[in-house]
Batch of 2 targets.
Target 1
Amino acid sequence: MTALLEVDGVSRSFGPVPALRNASLTVERNSITALIGPNGSGKTTMFNVITGYLRADSGRIRFDGHDVTAARPAALCRRGLSRTFQQARVFEQLTVEENLVIAGGFSLAQLFGRRVNRRDRHRAAELIDEFHLGDVADLPASGLSYGQRKLLEFAAVLMSSPTLVLLDEPTAGVNPVLMETMEHHIRRLHSTGITFLVVEHDMTFVMRLCDPVVVLDQGREIFTGSPDAVRENPAVLDAYLGA
Amino acid sequence: MRAGPLRAAVFFVVLAALPGFGLAHWLLTMLVFTLMFAVMSSAWNLLGGFAGYPSLGHVAFFGIGAYAVVLWFQHHDITTGYEPFLLLPLIGLGAVLVGLPIGAIAMRTRADVFAIVTITLLFVGQTLAFNLRDLTGGAQGASVVPAPFPADGYEIPFYDVLLVLLAVSMGLTWATMRSKVGLSLAAVRADEEKAAGIGVRVQTVKLLAFCVSVGLTAMVGAVWAYYEGFIYPQFAFDPLISVAMVLMTFLGGRATLWGPVLGAFILELAQQYFAYSLGASQFYLIAYALVFLVVILLMPRGILPSIQDRRWRRGRRRIVDARPPAAGHLP
């Protein structure tokens, strides 16, 4: 069987500055793949290119056997590829429950139906429960703490029943307890068959959770392997520590 | 009956009954203009409030509606006086058809850029009205036959029609808020890129809001032209009308059902009152601006959202105060 996601020789520049230079990576089905690298190595650009928020200048991307190089974010979302953002992006004026409902997607006819109907409520209730958002379900998301926003965005991503979830720094700026909660959720969802690609700076988190680890440096991948192999690879150490 | 529908019922029954009390002409005229602005602010709110696209060019559609009614009745007769009112749905539809491609192009921009792009609509409209002399009469203006209504209560049919338009506009707003259209518009307003990314039908709901909004505005323009009887390009495409819609909506509260209507009643009545009491001097415009400044300084988000906020915070404090301290925590 082919890999779930294949990024093949992708380049992307911003003006004269190359962010990705002929970078490739693969994400195998039902893995938790990490994407690491020093600041400015192109991790977030890679995420944006994969999810259709940015166009690649060259190269190809295949998801679940389809060429999705030029696909828009919405089309990818329908195919089962969803993401979170580094700075959690939630809809502030909407309540927590509404944030979940709108992420579930609906048809043109449903557009004119009730804002939140019983079926929506039922679908959202499970996630509200799992993510312990019951106390704030009816509050506008603008009142949530940073950590709660991260949880809400994560929960909302699951509303579209994705097969691959891209998490952009899920633990950045959150407290240790919440970090454990995140890890717990990722493991639990992984066990139900969801594949993850995670950008993360916290190395202990990556080493505990992810396999394999892809290392990016100056816009291209320099190493792919198990956490242990990454730790001992001279090229990786060089990229992080400098020669 | 719940509080919301009850409030609406009382509001409309009182307004519908008002002319029955034999109000003076000047008072009825004031109310006609207040209703005009209430409908337009309410319509503007669908786009500027709910979708977060602050159009400054809505008066272009007001002008289109005004000239549509004038031009049509240069070739058709008015006998009962109600013909122009029956034409309103058609004028609204025409404005929607004109607005569709304009909206599709203008809404490729956002926020301040969108506001500036839409300003050009107003000048395009005004320039066309000035220069297509064979059609519009240019600077000479154009007229429509006066309505054959009895002098005593001449304003009442206009008043009633505007009241119906207000009910339609507020009804559509209410339906929007309760449906997934409103949910989608709120997502567009908060973060359009993300909304599009998760599959919200961004383009559909944006265009829907734009079309309904300009359609209603054009209908008000048509009623205005018929009421005035004689129109000139600089008044049919008056930038101050666009500005008034925006100010009224901001004053009462964007993206609320009652905010724009409240804003229109306060600002339009205040303007008329000051114009009357401060006489021929231009001081009334300063007084009008002062009303707006004072309210916005005290309630920056508009009257209704500020009141709701205050009430919500008080309610929350009550809940927090009543909650027993959690075990293991110091009180």
Target 2
Amino acid sequence: MFSVHRDLKPNDLCADFHGNVKIVDFGICREAPAADVGTEKLTDNLGTREYLPPDGKSLTMDEYAVGVILCEIIGCGFTPFEGNKSLPGKFWPEHRKNYMKDALRKKLGFTRWSGFAIGESLESIGNDFLDVAMGLMEPDNSKRMGWEQALRQLTDLNERLRAADGAENVEDLHRQFGLMAISDAGSFDD
Amino acid sequence: MRCGFCLLLRHTHMIALSLLCASPRKRQARCPCDGSIHTTTLTTLIVPKMATPPPPHQEEELGDIVFGKDRNELNQILKMASLDLITDGIAEVNLAAQGRNKLAKGGVLFGCLATACKTLLDNKRVGTLSALEMEFKHELTRKTGEGETHQLHFAAFLQALFRFTWWKVKQAKREGNEGLAKGLQQMLVLFLTELLFRNKTMQACYIKLLAALAEGGNLIRDNNLPMPKVSASFGHANPKKKSDQDKENDNKYRARAIEHLLSCVFVSAEARHIARVMAGRIQKRSLLDDAMLKIAAKAGRNAKEKASFGEWWKAIYAYDDPHASTESEVVAHQVVDDPDRLAILEEILSSLDPFVGMIQEDGHVPVSYLDECKTYIDANLYRLGPAPPGPPPPPPPQLEDESAVGARHVSAAAKQCMEDATGPVRYDFFGKCFGDRNGLEVTHHGVAYALTATRWYTQDWQKYAKIGDLKNRETWVLAPEWGVKVSKLTQLLVNDGLGREWLMAPTSPAEKALAGVLCSLADLEIIGMAGSGSFGKVFIVRFKKNPDAWMALKLIAVDLDETTSCGKSDLKNVVREVSAGSISSSPHIMPVLGHFMVPEVELDKKKPMTFGLLLELAAGDLHSIITSSKFRALPLLHKVQESCHVMKQVLEGVRQLRQAGIGKIGAHFDKCFQPCADFECFQFIVI
């Protein structure tokens, strides 16, 4: 069987005091045969609009929501299609990827990417990151990136980032911006 | 894999509490029954220490408020309100009688209120608010035997009355009846003033608020209140141009005005006494003149909510009180006689002049100005330091999420909410606002519903109401943005200080009973409201024996009457809500640590059962984190790193959730539920 949370969004992801993230609120969680993945659509019209895939309530809607959340984290709270109802329909055709990338780059502040002077290799990491997000947000649910692949790619990205961002570099950045590590307890308050 | 609900329902020991109270850090404790060692899955219970919350606002005696000789307008309003309530109430009762409405309880309440209104109208005793309340209590006791809860429901009536009054103002303006509009507007100003300046809008306060509303309107309408006349010269009188007799008269007049003003706004017995004292002081001497009185008023209202300013309130109170303690008197003299502090006071007071003036000029005070004024006062009152003698004030709460402990502000949304209040709203307008919830579940949002209702009754919903029944799916599909808007607004209100305060009042007897039980038996203390979930409220609770241990308590009410489809649906939803997470041992899924049941409700299966679910306390949700200023300031590189870190955990959680499967949860629940009848009391289970 295949369980779908159906309402994944930042509000339903709780962080504890150690920076661990936990999923909550399974009120509309549903289950369907695993064989139906990619074909079956859930009939209930539930969920949060910004995190719903354009093709309807498919069984892979959680993956799509994760892609949106991924963009939202980078965009500090701005979802890719928030307030822009025409974007999904307008940009989903064949050139959508370039459009999407440009739109996301612009909206999520990726144009400032090179401003940090943290190495050319990170440019490709940024692109790969966007690829993961857009793979998860693939409008066609049969082509949507699965959680296994997304998990693998994110793990790989994390490793590359860790390699690119040495300990000294992190300290420099923290000094430069006067920030604590985000995973420190109690660092989330304004 | 162990089923969380099996464990929840089978164990009968208060293991969790023993564990948590003994040592939340060790995560192990000895079972009180068989001595076996149990391990808790608690990963984090230690949060920064929080100051002891101020004691709940004590209810004060409410005098009998009479609307006045000319009671036509208010009678008309009340009549309209009651007529509509009667209509709604009768409809509810009828539906409940037919077994088609799960809001039978609500129907009875509305019916009681409607009957009470009708009785008073018939007996021509509408002008007495407390008589209406007593009548309602009598009706409630007669029909349900739960007369003690009348204040909760009466508060809802006051909200309705507020909306009707507002609507009546608009109607009067449209009809060109400026006199009536101004009088009613004046009443609303008093109402709003109290709402905005007073965060403790518990149920008792509603009664006081309406008392102020009624009394103020009564005085204004009768032209007996010297407020308008005083306003012209308030703070601007030039003593050089007046004779001594004029000045004396002026002072007397001003004293009368202040006494009326304060007794309108401070309807408590204590506040009235202060008003009398302050009014008397004007006649005795002009040491602080009206400035002192105004700051006394503002400081007094803030002092009730700001513990650090409480002593100063007492000092002012004691200044002219012959029975005051020497210590209080000394403090009072320190504050009043210190030129530096006095200068600060005067500076603060100067900001209040327009407030008084605006009330009297056109009978209307912009809500935004009141808010601004309040912010200014709040920000400056602390400048009066140093702190008066006595125990040091508790430090401000240090919780990560301010919403958990109550922000002292009223957002634009809440103000807009009041401004847009135009007419009656029924619960069935909101059938879809909480997803696929039914009316029973929606009612558990109680005051949030009422607040939201006032905002919703706008052009938007009227537009969509034309499409058809808002409860059916077609409308929902046709108007998704309406649903999104409504959901967001609801969340906004829950996050809003005012909305949250309204939510703090228990919305049902079961919840109230549970709250009491938590304090007495479970050694827990509810210290805050985290928000509202899909089924009910989420409280933050503290263990009395170990104040460092905090958890979230989620209240869930479910109708156990399985003879109806609604009951079954409720069961399934609750089971999904709690078990889908508990059935998995994933560290990326929030576990259910334990649960409560309310015994008297449990024994009577016809009544909704209230569960209390103990959850881990989280530092905050991801949304609050990624919108925080610290996260925003992170370099993009680190944001990407955080995204990877977070998403890895989320994807792991999703994977484990899918592997766990939820298909047999309903069967598990049915199987496990039977032993509940044998439970002696409350159960705490660690899973």
